[in-house]
């Protein structure tokens, strides 16, 4: 077993060696600009890009012409929200989204509110982190032009009922954007079947390179239009100017092809490992709570709160394992995760949460080792915790008068 162990595959994934292999010629002999129309260097590069576009489209059941390359899902989310608002502002000025979206959607929505007077409804989620399609329906007004709901959450792995939301969007003639960065390549996604009009995703979350992503933009039923947010050479059918990063795009295509072939097997293997890890932890420790949906969740995600233990201290106690805690340094202070808070998880338990993100290259022995070390560390930290001691003595911690208050 090699250390450190990587269990943070929601943040990014290691690149698959087969992806790297596919990219290499495009750094050297096939270095051309895909927009160079009058020589072989350009044609070679363009051929690489168009093959990748097909591989990417196939994974999500789209047409290659519906794929717009970007620098990643952050840019795709910006382009979708800002591009739709700018293009359709005469139709309305209202967006519906959810409170557990990635920052790239939430901050874009906030910028649109502040700078363009757009009205945004941030839907609540249930205790498992799921958006209720009926809440979407009830939030629709005659000014609504876009619904943006994520496919699966990056912290808790909960998968939203996107198909049901898509049906409502279609019924009302409103566009549906989906940030599917965590879902694409991990679980089957079909933009036709699910009624998705715009969809963001990124190569580096699916064993591809960093710095490239895509926005799916529906071409028919309806034909979606977006205003470009970057002025320039008119690349990507005028929706996103800039010389294409050919090697990254070729790698992105290969990553999608591999996901298409191996997604089912990866998901089956990882969910078994994940469930075993969960069972081991709950068997050994009391006062542990699963965050997110028990069944409607990504196969490689596990998010657990360990009561009476600070997530950050837990991570410090097992530095040889790369994990993520539910506390985010969003400001000078350590804020508990807004996603967990949106599920109604208290600040204490939110601070005590750990996200396990398994991946294609995760080994059984790594997961077993992580489980053992987490159990050891939680036990040790609890032994040192006065709060845990008080709770064990039957003192109701809520009734305690804290000196600091
Ligand atoms: C990682 C992630 C993003 C941002 O993607 P980048 O390609 O890193 O910009 C957006 N949304 C979700 C849900 C993510 O997990």
Automatic annotation (TrEMBL):
<keyword id="KW-0411">Iron-sulfur</keyword>
<comment type="subunit">
    <text>Homodimer. Forms a heterotetramer with IscU, interacts with other sulfur acceptors.</text>
</comment>
<feature type="binding site">
    <location>
        <begin position="73"/>
        <end position="74"/>
    </location>
    <ligand>
        <name>pyridoxal 5'-phosphate</name>
    </ligand>
</feature>
<keyword id="KW-0001">2Fe-2S</keyword>
<feature type="binding site">
    <location>
        <begin position="202"/>
        <end position="204"/>
    </location>
    <ligand>
        <name>pyridoxal 5'-phosphate</name>
    </ligand>
</feature>
<keyword id="KW-0963">Cytoplasm</keyword>
<dbReference type="InterPro" id="IPR015421">
    <property type="entry name" value="PyrdxlP-dep_Trfase_major"/>
</dbReference>
<feature type="binding site">
    <location>
        <position position="154"/>
    </location>
    <ligand>
        <name>pyridoxal 5'-phosphate</name>
    </ligand>
</feature>
<feature type="binding site">
    <location>
        <position position="182"/>
    </location>
    <ligand>
        <name>pyridoxal 5'-phosphate</name>
    </ligand>
</feature>
<feature type="binding site" description="via persulfide group">
    <location>
        <position position="329"/>
    </location>
    <ligand>
        <name>[2Fe-2S] cluster</name>
    </ligand>
</feature>
<feature type="binding site">
    <location>
        <position position="243"/>
    </location>
    <ligand>
        <name>pyridoxal 5'-phosphate</name>
    </ligand>
</feature>
<feature type="active site" description="Cysteine persulfide intermediate">
    <location>
        <position position="329"/>
    </location>
</feature>
<dbReference type="InterPro" id="IPR015424">
    <property type="entry name" value="PyrdxlP-dep_Trfase"/>
</dbReference>
<keyword id="KW-0479">Metal-binding</keyword>
<keyword id="KW-0808">Transferase</keyword>
<comment type="similarity">
    <text>Belongs to the class-V pyridoxal-phosphate-dependent aminotransferase family. NifS/IscS subfamily.</text>
</comment>
<dbReference type="Pfam" id="PF00266">
    <property type="entry name" value="Aminotran_5"/>
</dbReference>
<dbReference type="InterPro" id="IPR010240">
    <property type="entry name" value="Cys_deSase_IscS"/>
</dbReference>
<feature type="domain" description="Aminotransferase class V">
    <location>
        <begin position="5"/>
        <end position="369"/>
    </location>
</feature>
<keyword id="KW-0663">Pyridoxal phosphate</keyword>
<dbReference type="InterPro" id="IPR000192">
    <property type="entry name" value="Aminotrans_V_dom"/>
</dbReference>
<dbReference type="InterPro" id="IPR015422">
    <property type="entry name" value="PyrdxlP-dep_Trfase_small"/>
</dbReference>
<dbReference type="GO" id="GO:0030170">
    <property type="term" value="F:pyridoxal phosphate binding"/>
</dbReference>
<dbReference type="GO" id="GO:1990221">
    <property type="term" value="C:L-cysteine desulfurase complex"/>
</dbReference>
<dbReference type="GO" id="GO:0051537">
    <property type="term" value="F:2 iron, 2 sulfur cluster binding"/>
</dbReference>
<dbReference type="InterPro" id="IPR016454">
    <property type="entry name" value="Cysteine_dSase"/>
</dbReference>
<comment type="function">
    <text>Master enzyme that delivers sulfur to a number of partners involved in Fe-S cluster assembly, tRNA modification or cofactor biosynthesis. Catalyzes the removal of elemental sulfur atoms from cysteine to produce alanine. Functions as a sulfur delivery protein for Fe-S cluster synthesis onto IscU, an Fe-S scaffold assembly protein, as well as other S acceptor proteins.</text>
</comment>
<keyword id="KW-0408">Iron</keyword>
<comment type="pathway">
    <text>Cofactor biosynthesis; iron-sulfur cluster biosynthesis.</text>
</comment>
<protein>
    <recommendedName>
        <fullName>Cysteine desulfurase IscS</fullName>
        <ecNumber>2.8.1.7</ecNumber>
    </recommendedName>
</protein>
<dbReference type="GO" id="GO:0031071">
    <property type="term" value="F:cysteine desulfurase activity"/>
</dbReference>
<feature type="modified residue" description="N6-(pyridoxal phosphate)lysine">
    <location>
        <position position="205"/>
    </location>
</feature>
<dbReference type="InterPro" id="IPR020578">
    <property type="entry name" value="Aminotrans_V_PyrdxlP_BS"/>
</dbReference>
<dbReference type="GO" id="GO:0044571">
    <property type="term" value="P:[2Fe-2S] cluster assembly"/>
</dbReference>
<dbReference type="GO" id="GO:0046872">
    <property type="term" value="F:metal ion binding"/>
</dbReference>
